[in-house]
Specification:
A two-stranded antiparallel ribbon has the order 1-4. A two-stranded antiparallel ribbon has the order 2-3. It has 19 helices and four strands. It has 431 residues and is mainly α. 65% of the residues lie in helices and 3% in strands.
Length: 431
């Protein structure tokens, strides 16, 4: 039944592979259950309630991705957008968290409308094929960078932006050991290599003091109540200029983070169709639009497609069965939060580093002989890790693509929608 519904065999996969892929994706993104409540609580929101909202919004959005879009992508409240919510809108601009939550709710409604009228799908399909391959490579460097920072091997440096961390630090040792374990397992073609690496690193981390087992550790607990944050909106300032600015920022970042993830991971998985388009893109975009809307009702920031989905794809996940597994895991996590919370960042970081490596292969498909294609691809790739943003990488890639084609007299190679998007990008930089 599952094989027929998700077309698992047709996609050259198996139920076992799909489930392992789903668990792997979940393990690489489960940190959001700890990080999102921590960030949003800085705005005055109830931390325990945000934990429940985070898990439930991930379940809802990922179920839609699984059962409607039938793609192996997982969703949850996005990193970066939650920081903008708490530190810029609330602490910086001085608005209440109810105001910020209202902006997220309006964003979700707008995204649903844009998806219904195929505007978001039009944007996804307008990205040139070479840039789609470049997005995959850029995301690979980006998430590998996140992984290296997660181990502490790469650290902040005021003089040089980044530098080598303390290689004797237990976190670095756990992370590098995880990379080594995953590498050996991959060499021996052992399925579930990334998941095994995460679990092995977590166990090793106990002996090195990286994996912390709390006192009075309990395996199960009831999920906290949503009451303090459920449906807490403030519509009194929806027509103000500040609301417009906040709403535009949420829309912009989420739009191109999601587009970038869908395109990049699909490219790596060879899921793009003959025209270079993401299959069932409209259904996939509905997942994050509805997820964001329901997430705001529950009491959390913008829900988006997670780049960590690449971890499951790297394990062979190709269908909605992968994302269904992720949704089930998030539902279980509601009651087994203490277990999932002990997995340290140093244990999931090796998975991100290895997946970053896997995401690099589409670089072989980029046209290196045409500079109007190569330069935009390069900007897309390099700007993602250096700006710490998938969206900014796409912006610079698309801007340079349009400018080079236009100024070299090859304007007919640019789709009309690309000119409109470029104009919006320029306006964003000027405002």
């Amino acid at each position: 039944m599952l094989d027929k519904f998700f077309k698992i065999t047709e996609n050259k996969s198996t139920l076992k592979i799909e489930v392992i892929a789903g668990i792997t994706t979940f393990m690489t993104m489960v940190y959001i259950l700890a990080v999102n409540p921590s960030i949003l609580s800085a705005s005055g929101m109830d931390k325990d309630a945000v934990f429940t909202a985070t898990a439930l919004s991930a379940v809802i959005a990922t179920l839609i991705m699984a059962l409607y879009a039938k793609l192996p992508f997982a969703l949850a409240p996005g990193m970066g957008l939650n920081a903008f919510f708490a530190f810029t809108v609330v602490l910086g601009m001085g608005y209440s968290w109810e105001f910020a939550l209202t902006a997220v709710f309006l964003e979700g409604i707008i995204f649903i409308l844009l998806t219904i009228f195929n505007i978001r799908e039009l944007i996804v399909n307008s990205i040139p094929l070479n840039l789609k391959h470049a997005v995959s490579v850029g995301i690979g460097l980006f998430i590998a960078f996140i992984g290296l920072k997660g181990t502490g091997l790469v650290v902040d440096n005021p003089a040089t932006l980044v530098s080598l961390g303390d290689v004797k630090n237990p976190n670095v040792l756990v992370g590098m050991l995880g990379v080594l374990i995953i590498g050996i397992l991959l060499t021996k073609n052992i399925k579930g290599a990334i998941l095994i690496g995460i679990l092995a690193s977590t166990i090793v981390g106990i002996f090195l003091g990286v994996t912390v087992l709390p006192e009075n550790f309990s395996i199960m607990s009831l999920p906290p109540s949503l009451e303090p944050i459920f449906f807490k909106f403030d519509f009194s300032q929806i027509f103000t200029l500040d609301m417009l600015i906040v709403l535009f920022t949420f829309l912009f970042v989420d739009m191109f983070d999601t587009v970038g993830t869908l395109v990049g991971v699909s490219s790596k998985a060879d899921m793009l169709d003959k025209d270079g388009n993401v299959p069932r893109a409209k259904q996939a975009l509905f997942a994050d639009a509805i997820g964001t809307t329901f997430g705001a009702m529950l009491g959390t920031s913008t829900v988006t497609t997670y780049v960590e989905s690449a971890a499951g794809v790297a394990e062979g996940g190709r269908t909605g069965m992968t994302s269904l597994t992720v949704a089930i895991m998030f539902a279980i996590a509601l009651f087994f939060a203490p277990v999932f919370m002990i997995i340290p960042a140093a244990a999931t970081a090796p998975a991100l580093i290895i997946v970053g490596l896997f995401m690099m292969s589409p670089i072989l498909k980029i046209n290196f002989d045409d500079y109007t294609e190569l330069i935009p691809a390069f900007f897309t790739i390099i700007m993602m890790p250096l700006t710490f943003s998938i969206a900014e990488g796409i912006v610079f890639g698309m801007l340079s693509f349009v400018m080079l084609k236009l100024l070299s007299g090859r304007y007919k190679e640019v789709k009309p929608i690309m000119y409109l998007i470029t104009l919006l990008f320029i306006i964003k930089f000027l405002v």
